[in-house]
Amino acid sequence: MCAFCLKYRGFILFLTFLFYTAYHLSRKPISIVKSELHKNCSTVIRPVDLNITDNDTWCDWVPFDQDNYQTLFGVLDNSFLVAYAIGMFFSGIFGERLPLRYYLSVGMLLSGVFTCLFGLGYYWEIHSLWYYAFIQVMNGLMQTTGWPAVVACVGNWFGKGKRGFIMGVWNSHTSVGNILGSLIAGVFVSSAWGMSFIVPGIIIASTGILCFFFLVESQFLCTDKKPLLPNGNQSINRSISTEIPEIVEDHSKAISFCGALRIPGVVEFSLCLMFAKLVSYTFLYWLPLYISNVAHFKAKEAGDMSTLFDVGGIVGGIMAGLVSDFTGGRASTCYVMLIAAAPMLFLYNYIGQKSLGITIGMLLVCGALVNGPYALITTAVSADLGTHESLRGNSRALSTVSAIIDGTGSIGAALGPLLAGLISPTGWNNVFYMLIAADVLACLLLSRLVYKEIKGWCGPRLRG
């Protein structure tokens, strides 16, 4: 590959990292704003000119001022997540049949519009649950344009050699987006929570414009060319590089949905991700509120503290990629991290709020163990399966495989926050028991693949 191609490959990695950072950045504000929409008003200084009769709910945002506010928050979360899960199965199919540059650009622009519309509800003084739920549904559908497209771009530009490490580093965009989204939303949450949505909405819309002008979705393959001036001025010939980037068009037929399901490992990893993502997204949407309720932090402080979970996720994703590259065991790496995550979740619930140091340490460790397998499956594993040897070189399966895996995972992402909203009124302990059970189920679903990998490692020695 020529020097130009190598440089542009790095640029594509950075560009797609920026795009999906913006996607996650625009998803995060809802979890930060929850503790502002419903809070303990008896501890808030009341304006002297405000005539109210209920001291407990006067500062809450209607309709989240009632005792069922956690259920209503669950409705908002699942309006987004169910739409995202359903839309993801179709998004991959569209992504393989439409120009990715246009697909991503339009998706980011419309996602920015709907994110801003949620925030404008604050300034327009909209108090209808259905308005916010509708915005969440539409935003969820628009957000499905991101993942299959960016994974397809990166998978086409990078080979399998160090895919786990490269995509582990690249996949930190998820955690970086969550961190930036939390910090940006936290700046405005206590003064004007509408801006907590409007600013991220403007950011993702801006990256959509950037995508339209700069994304190159096809891989450049560098080939040697004959001299442009045969038998002519050799000094001119030498001054012209013989390595010319050439865009090679892919005329292979797009794979069907059922064909993608028949690829070995797709079903197991998809179901595993469903439970792994259930845990991850429950933390994404409910961790700030949990910290606020249990540790009695203010909304901004709880949001800032929750970013430590995502910092741990960055480390976990990179470590999972490195270990799986070294061992060749994608399933085994996920299995070990998921097994370790279960007791750590139990410990975090029981001792995580004992002191600030313990809270920081436990959030970092839990973030690494929970998000490590999630990051590995959605990136390196998806890219491996999308270019599986059974496809006989068909490069157009990557987007569909990524969509199936992430779409199945998104079912868990929708179930997690919903169950948390239903269970949390009975106590946070029960929420954590649910998360631990999901982790164990994720491990069990990988058992066959783990056995196959171990057999592959030990087989030659046993035969020897």
TrEMBL record:
Pfam annotation, one family: MFS_1
Gene3D superfamilies documented for this protein: MFS general substrate transporter like domains
Keyword Protein biosynthesis: no
Catalytic activity as recorded in UniProt: D-glucose 6-phosphate(in) + phosphate(out) = D-glucose 6-phosphate(out) + phosphate(in)
TM region positions: 7-25, 71-90, 102-124, 130-158, 170-189, 195-216, 266-287, 307-326, 333-351, 357-377, 397-419, 431-451
GO BP terms, alphabetized: phosphate ion transmembrane transport
Domain Major facilitator superfamily (MFS) profile positions: 15-455
Membrane-protein topology: Multi-pass membrane protein
SUPFAM superfamilies, sorted: MFS general substrate transporter (SSF103473)
Alphabetized GO MF terms: glucose 6-phosphate:phosphate antiporter activity
Cellular component aspect of the GO annotation: endoplasmic reticulum membrane
Superkingdom of this protein's organism: Eukaryota
Protein localization: Endoplasmic reticulum membrane
Key words, A-Z: Antiport, Endoplasmic reticulum, Glycoprotein, Membrane, Sugar transport, Transmembrane, Transmembrane helix, Transport
Protein family according to the UniProt entry: Belongs to the major facilitator superfamily. Organophosphate:Pi antiporter (OPA) (TC 2.A.1.4) family.
Name assigned to this protein: Glucose-6-phosphate exchanger SLC37A2
Gene (UniProt): SLC37A2
